[in-house]
Amino acid sequence: MLVGEAEHWWRGTHHMLTARGVVVDWECFRRMFLEKYFPESVRHAKEVEFMQLHQGEMTVSEYAMRFEHLARFYSQGIAEAWKCRKFAKGLKYELKRVMVPMAITEFLALVEKAKVVERLEGGNRVVPQPQQGGPVIRQPSGAAGGGRQGGGATLRCYGCVGHHFVRDCPHTESWCFKCHQMGHESTNCPTRSRPERIDAQRGDTQRGDRPTTAGRVLTLTGAEASTSSDLVKGKGRAAGKDVMILFDSGASHSFISYDWLSANRILIDCANRRLIFPQVEEELLISAGQAESLLRDGAECCFLLAALNVETERVIAEIDVVRDFAEVFPDEVPGLPPVREMEFSIDLVPGAGPVSVAPYRMAPAELVELKGQLEDLLEKQLVRPSVSSWGAPVLLVKKKDGGSRLCVDYRQLNKLTIKNKYPLPWIDDLMDQLRGASVFSKIDLRSSYHQIRVKEGDIPKTAFRTRYGHYEYGVMPFGVTNTPVVFMDYMNRIFRPFLDKFVVVFIDDILIYSRTREEHGEHLRVVLEILKAKQLYAKLSKCEFWLDEVKFLGHVISAEWIAVDPAKVESVL
C-alpha cells in the first residue's frame, strides 16, 4: 500500500495513464514506480559499488551479505562461476591467497570455506611478547577436524603445505612467506637485507608472494636497465643530449588484453619479447582541434585547407510571384502575433500543482548571451515578467549556424500535461499526393510556434526562471508538449480547401506542387495571400521556389520519382 507522497504521486500518474488509454497492469506500475523512486542513475551507482566492492575491514559474513545485496542491482546476468571469482578476488589478501587457487565454483561453498579460513587465520595470528623478545604462535582450542570440509575440496596447510588444517600442523615454528623457510617470519627474513637484482638472462625478479619494487629501483644500474627485458624504457633528450628514460607506471605488473592487440593488429614476437606495430598506411582524418594540438607538440604540417560553402544572398525581387509578397518574408518577426481563431491551452491532470525548479548554472559567456536574448524577447513582447508559482530552468543550445537558441526545460510541466490526441499525418501518405507534379516550391515559416498566442489563464504555466528574473511566455513556447499538434491543427484549418490539391503541410513546412509552371504561379500566389492575411511569416533563406526537384521531409521529389534523401541515409550509416 502506498501512503503519503507516494500515494499522491500514483493517483496523479494513474489518472494520466488512463486518460492516455494506457492499460495499467502490474508491469506498468512497476516500470513507473522504478522510474520515479529507483531511477537509472541510482541503479548505476549500485552497479559501480558492486564492481568496486572489497572486504576491507568487514568479516567474511558481512562481506558476503553486502556482496549478495549489491549483486541484485547488477544489470548483466551473473554466472555462478563469475560470481565466485568476483567474491574471491575481493577478499583480504590473507584469505584470497588461499581461496583463489581452490577455484570453487559454488558460491555457498566458497563463502563457508572462506569463513573457515578466516577463523583459522584469526587463531594463528602472531601475538607479540615483549618480555621474551620473540613471537609466540597462539594455538586454537578444539579437537582436530580432519583434512576435508563439506563440498569435497581438500584444504592444505599454508604453513607446511600438508593435508591438514593450520591448527593441526605439527610444525609450531614460524614460517616465512618470503623465502618459504621455517624458523623465522617474513619481517625478520635475512633475504630482506640483500638487494634484489634483475636476472638479465631470464628477465625475472626473485620476489615473494607480495610484489616489491623499491629494492629494484634503488639498486638498478644503467647497464642492467639496458639489458633487462621487463622494463618499459624509451629514448629522449635532456639538455640537448640523448638519454634513456625508464617509465614507471606505478604498478607491479602491466597487462595488455587480447582485444586491444587484435583491434590494433599488434603482432607478438615471443622469441625477442617484442610487440610489432603495423605501419599505418591509410590516411587519417583529424579535427581542427587535433591538428592544433599536434602543431603545438612540434608536428610538421605541409598544408591546411579550409573549405567554405559560400551561399549567395537571395534577392526577393528576382523571384516571380514572391516579389509581390515581400511583407511575408521579414528579417524578424514584428512582435506579438494577432489574436487568432484558436489559442494554445495547457490542460493538467487532476490534482497537479505548480512545479518550480532552480535555474541551471551557466558560464559567463552563456550569461551574456542569455541576457541579450531575454532583452530581445521582451522588446518583441513575446515574454513578460512573471510572478507565477511555476518556474522551469533554461539552457542555451547550439544551432547549426554557430549561434545559440534559448530553450526552456519544460519536462516537469510536460509530465503533468494531458496529451492532445490530434493526429500528425503519415509522411508516406503525404508523398502519395505528389504524383504527377513537376514544379515545386517550399516555404519554411519563421518562429512558427511564436505565431500563436497562449490562452491567458495558462500563461503562468509557461513561466521560467533565470539569473536575470522570472518570465512567462505570451506566445506558444518551444518545448511544451502538444505544441506541434496544435500548430498542425491551425495550419490544416487555414489551408483546408487546398490540401491534397496543390498544398502539403507538415507542422511549419509548406510544399506547393503543380503540374505546369502556369498552374504553379497561381497556386503559389494563393498560398502567399493566405500567409499575408493570417500574418504568418516565412524565412526566405530557408525557402525554395520554382524547383524541378525538391527535398522535403527526408525525401527527394521530382516528376520522375520520389526517393529517400541519400544525405539522410548517409548520416544514419
Automatic annotation (TrEMBL):
Q: Which Gene3D superfamilies match?
A: 3.30.70.270, HIV Type 1 Reverse Transcriptase, subunit A, domain 1, Zinc finger, CCHC-type
Which segments constitute the Reverse transcriptase domain? Answer: 378-557
CDD domains (alphabetical): RT_LTR
Q: Name one GO biological process term.
A: proteolysis
Q: Per the database record, which ranges form the CCHC-type domain?
A: 176-190
Give the compositionally biased regions (Basic and acidic residues).
193-210
Quote the InterPro entries the UniProt record gives.
Aspartic_peptidase_AS, DNA/RNA_pol_sf, Retrotrans_gag_dom, Rev_trsase/Diguanyl_cyclase, RNA-dir_DNA_polymerase, RT_dom, Znf_CCHC, Znf_CCHC_sf
GO terms for molecular function, please?
A: aspartic-type endopeptidase activity; endonuclease activity; nucleic acid binding; RNA-directed DNA polymerase activity; zinc ion binding
The protein in question is named: Transposon Ty3-I Gag-Pol polyprotein
